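Request:
You are asked to prepare a plain-text protein record giving the amino acid sequence and the backbone structure tokens, at your earliest convenience.
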Amino acid sequence: MDKISRFEKVSPEQFKKDWINCFSACPDKEIESIYNSIRLPKRATVGSAGYDFYSPIDMTLYYSNTVDCEKTYGLSSGTITVPTGIRCNIKQGWLLQIYPRSSLGFKFGLHLANTVGIIDGDYYFSENEGHIFVKIVIGSECKKDIEIKKGQAFCQGILTPFGITYDDDTVNKRNGGLGSTDSFKKV
């Protein structure tokens, strides 16, 4: 099989900035500890298509919206945005698709807020270093809380080739991080 990408950690500075943007402030030492414990995505078996992304923290997603949750990491009333600390350098003509881990989707209805995360190859070069965020949502059919432990696989990335049309004449370049395809640079 062709090797067409490489997972890397974003810089400690980028991770800290994004972590603080997602969660209330926490001590630098705690953010540093979370960053240092980040594991790069891996396949579980030689036959696996997906690269497991591991939770950088303990998370609990509460089914009931009546739970009074503070906006701190690990607590959420049904949804949480996870800065993974991961970026992916992808060969041209490929993309990375992010899905929830199959077992979590099947057992708990866990899904991504955007259904499927699409990580384009040029995202790696964006202003946020291509930092991959995953926003997970508990399914309404679940009717129970979900606990995801630090280090547990919670989503997976699948590398997929893509094509372009014969008349494609796109020359614009990405200028930013998450959601940046609407703010591209005209070349």
User: Anything to note?
Assistant: The mean pLDDT is 86. The longest strand covers residues 153-161. Residues 93 and 166 are 14 Å apart (CA to CA).
